[in-house]
Amino acid sequence: MVFMQLHGAQPQRNRNADQSDKYQLFLNEAFALSEGIRSQVVFATFVEKVENQIKSISVINASKLFLHRSGYASSKFKNNFHE
């Protein structure tokens, strides 16, 4: 024991406890990081779906407008189209 204290070595049981504490800290930080990444992925997916919906609505409305103005619109389109 005196040899270990003189040379800066820790007893085996303290080293194991320190490693266990460090490992637990690592697991907690890794979990927090993965939760952060997961929430960013969910938010990015949500934003992408909203953007796609907006783009789809814009394309549909532009197509209806084109068909309406060019005279190719059926009565169904003419009745449902709002400028």
The main sheet comes to: none
Low-confidence stretches: none
Mean pLDDT: 80
The gyration radius over C-alpha positions equals 32 Å
Overall morphology = rod-shaped
H/E series, N to C? Answer: HHH
Distance between the termini: 88 Å
Percentage of residues in DSSP E strands: under 5%
Care to count the β-strands?
A: 0
Number of helices: 3
Q: Share of helix among residues?
A: over 70%
Helical/strand content category: mainly alpha
Quick recap of the structure?
With 83 residues, the chain is mainly α.
Written overview of the protein:
- It is a single chain.
- The protein is an all-alpha fold and 83 residues long.
- It is 84% helix and 0% strand.
- The protein is rod-shaped, with a radius of gyration of 32 Å.
Topology:
Layout: H1 2-6, H2 12-70, H3 75-80
